[in-house]
Design brief:
It is a single chain. The protein is mostly beta strands. The protein contains 3 helices and 63 strands. Among the domains are: 2-31, no CATH class; 42-122, Immunoglobulin-like, CATH 2.60.40; 141-446, Methylamine Dehydrogenase, Chain H; 694-757. The strands form 15 sheets. Strands 1, 2, 3, 4, 5, 6, 7, 8 and 9 form a 9-stranded mixed beta sheet that branches. Strands 10-63-62-61 form a 4-stranded antiparallel beta sheet, with no helix packed on it. The longest helix has 18 residues, at 14-31.
């Protein structure tokens, strides 16, 4: 072009100049042609519309750059570059903390308008993969008793009396309890079926009910009396503090309700000679009152007037749920002494001789409250527990001095049989046996809950997560698991709520839960399925099973159970819709199940070992029959599988066959892809909600520990191990929460709920 200009500037003929100009114009016109107009991206679809971090979503639209990485997808809280194209769809992996809302694509062509309403489900797996909290599973005893060498606790967790020696013992629901060690009896009160009538029951140490009566009022304390074979019940009757007496061995009322003539009752204790000591306030609520009642005389029909003993109006005795604010020491001596737990952490002492009187106080040098009292029979020694100080003090009431201190734990409820006291720890499930004369701990018992299933379970089911009901603000996330030591199904709130047992069916082995509609299934070794629908923790609906369950899978309101034939009619598959059995199908040749789940169309897939190797079967719940025929049966391996799990890209089968390999199968169970594994993956105990993290409960920790291994579900890398965490105790159950960011673990020895986040 510059040369042309130079030539043009010289003298040329008109024709030559015109020809040159035409040529130049032609060349310039060609150089000025513009490429087609580049338009900004326009999105038309987003699938799936909800996902966890790390999962793949597909975006369809126009204006996308051919290079996937040149397309930046902005979610509400984070961005990610395109990963690849799947046909015309741009595939992108959801970034951590993506947030919910519309998505936007930006590339060299421009920026799209916000599109869709992506729902971010959460990280989908623990962020740190480290232990965050450990919470003990406690009985929190209300009372503890010793009878004939056995130890009994009134467990808040179970709401009843339990035996340390006999896991089958159970009193049923109990509000108040008492013991009569001298005749091997235990007593409890409970509400009847009408929810208003209170019943008083008597049990022997084998758990047999030996007597029961309906009480005329709801008592605040019951007291077994030595020598007169009655149980006293104290409570409000017609607006007055009253007492009634029953002989449950005979089933007869020995004393109709009679007013005590006091203003406020705080507790009673057996003096051991046919008398009962009461601590109360007078009718003016100004004078601390000690009343000694001759029960034998009361049974004759006359209630002696209470003996009012002047005391300090400022000193208020403490009372626990079981009213352990008063105890008597020296019940086998001529002059027993009583001790009252005072508000400031000290003891008020009373002489229960011929002329009852307060005789002074015992200073404990600590303002922390006294939780339990237990008096010796042959001496004036008394044990007082102070859980806040971690001490059990032994006091000589005659000299009003502390003579022994038994440190350790947080001693709470206590009682004595003779000169031996039993003390329940408030922060563990231990019970200490203490010699009151020497002040020494002679034994320690562990009444652990022992979570876990009775049968070895390889594929979960020993714990289930039930999310809170968003429509009910008072509900909490809960973990459910079976207990072995004292059989039952335990509800463990993961917030501020109180753990409770909702079933005492022996041999519960598996538990599953569904959030909507809320349902909890508990399957037992004897072959029964309890169904708690709609978070109703009353009487469950019970359905029979054909044998002990092995593996479960839940989806919505449906539950699938596999039997391995051990103790069952035959190995097979059972399906329920809520509490309704849809039927079961036997699989006669089944040797083991390695996985169970629901396909997208509602049918059930099962990985089952038959005589010729591992098979995948597909069953329609509507077509179950005995014997049954699956809709699809495909042999996928010549050897038994280690595991079968659904990951983000489909169903994978893991086998050890000339080395560990994993195979991805199609919807028709054809093998699509087989990859070697970076490390042996023996068993998969849990899969994160985002289907990208595998958890194995492994051997290999130190004594008393369990090793949890975490594997990344990355076929290209051979499912490598990416982390491990050591958990104290034996891991019995694993359950992810709804976001996957919290893995809840139930351990035994120590009994704990452990959070890995």
């Amino acid at each position: 072009m510059n040369g042309a200009r130079r030539v043009t500037s010289q003298c040329l003929t008109t024709a030559a100049a015109a020809a040159l100009a035409a040529a130049l114009l032609s060349g310039c016109a060609k150089d000025l042609e513009l490429p087609p107009l580049r338009t900004a991206p326009v999105l038309s679809s987003l699938s799936p519309a909800s996902a966890w971090a790390g999962q793949l979503v597909r975006l369809d639209g126009t204006g996308l750059e051919p290079d996937p990485a040149a397309n930046v997808v902005a979610f509400a809280g984070a961005s990610a570059r395109g990963l690849r194209f799947d046909g015309e769809a741009l595939v992108v992996r959801v970034p951590d903390d993506a947030g919910s809302g519309p998505v936007i694509v930006t590339n060299g062509r421009g920026t799209s308008d916000p599109f869709g309403a992506f729902d971010y489900l959460g990280l989908g797996e623990p962020r740190r993969r480290a232990v965050a909290t450990r919470r003990p599973i406690l009985h929190r005893p209300i009372a503890v008793y010793g009878i004939g060498g056995d130890t009994f606790i009134h467990s808040r967790l179970y709401g009843e009396l339990l035996s340390a020696d006999d896991p089958a013992f159970g009193s049923g629901p109990a509000i108040l309890t008492a013991a009569a060690p001298w005749d091997g009896s235990l007593y409890s009160t409970s509400l009847g079926p009408d929810g208003t009538t209170t019943y008083l029951s008597r049990f022997d140490t084998a758990g047999a009910l030996t007597g029961q009566v309906a009480l005329p009022f709801e008592p605040s304390q019951i007291l077994a009396m030595r020598g007169v074979d009655v149980v006293l019940a104290f409570g409000m009757d017609d607006g007055a503090e009253s007492v009634t007496a029953w002989n449950l061995r005979l089933g007869s009322q020995q004393l109709a309700p009679m007013p005590l003539g006091i203003g406020a009752f705080f507790g009673a204790a057996d003096v051991g000679d046919g008398r009962a000591a009461l601590i109360a306030y007078d009718e003016g609520f100004s004078t601390l009152t000690l009343a000694v009642v001759d029960v034998q005389a009361v049974l004759g029909g006359a209630l002696p007037a209470p003996v009012f003993v002047p005391g300090s109006p400022e000193s208020f005795p403490l009372s626990s749920q079981n009213l352990a604010g008063l105890a008597v020491a020296g019940t086998g001596t001529l002059t027993p002494l009583a001790a009252v737990a005072l508000d400031g952490g000290d003891l008020l002492v009373a002489d229960l001789g011929a002329t009852p009187a307060f005789v002074g106080t015992v200073e404990t040098f600590s303002p922390s409250p006294i939780e339990g009292l237990a008096g010796a029979a042959t001496s004036p020694l008394l044990l007082a527990t102070k859980p806040d100080d971690g001490l059990a003090l032994i006091v000589d009431l005659s000299t009003r001095a502390v003579i022994w201190s038994v440190p350790g734990g947080a001693p709470g409820a206590a009682s004595a049989d003779g000169d031996v006291a039993r003390v329940a720890d408030a922060t563990s499930n231990d019970v200490s046996v203490v010699n009151l004369v020497t002040g020494s701990r002679v034994a320690r018992l562990a009444l652990d809950v022992s979570p876990g299933s009775a049968r070895a379970n390889r594929y979960g089911g020993a714990a289930a997560f039930l999310p809170r009901d968003p429509a009910v603000p008072s509900t909490e996330d809960e973990l459910l698991f079976p207990a072995q030591r004292f059989p039952g199904l335990v509800r463990f709130p993961l917030g501020e709520g109180t753990p409770a047992v909702v079933s005492r069916t022996p041999g519960i082995t598996l538990v599953a839960a569904a959030p909507s509609p809320a349902a909890v299934w508990a399957a037992s070794e004897p072959g029964a399925l309890e169904v708690h629908e709609g978070r109703a923790w009353g009487t469950p609906i019970v359905q029979p099973l054909v044998g002990p369950p092995l593996v479960t899978a839940a989806c919505g309101a449906h539950l699938a159970i596999a039997y391995d034939g051990v103790g069952a009619t035959a190995p097979g598959l059972h399906v329920f819709d809520g509490s309704t059995s849809l039927g079961w199908a036997s699989i006669p040749d089944a040797e083991a199940f390695h996985g169970l789940g629901f396909a997208g169309d509602g049918r059930i897939w099962a990985s089952v070992t038959l005589g010729d190797g591992e098979h995948l079967q597909l069953w329609d719940p509507a077509h179950l029959a005995t014997p049954g025929t699956p809709d699809l049966d495909v042999g996928v391996a010549s050897r038994s599988a280690n595991a079968a799990v659904v990951l983000e890209d489909g169903l994978w089968i893991v086998v050890d066959d000339s080395g560990s390999v994993g195979s991805l199968v199609s919807e028709t169970f054809d093998v699509i892809r087989t990859v070697p594994l970076a490390a042996q993956l023996p068993v998969v105990h849990a899969v994160s909600p985002n289907r990208r993290l595998l958890v194995e409960r492994a051997l290999g920790g130190a004594a008393g520990e369990t090793l949890l291994r975490f594997y990344r579900a990355d076929p290209d890398a051979g499912f490598p191990q990416i982390d491990a965490v050591v958990v104290e105790g034996n891991v019995e159950g694993l359950a992810f929460d709804a976001t996957g960011e919290r893995l809840w673990i139930v351990t035994r020895g120590p009994d704990r709920v452990v959070l890995v986040d």
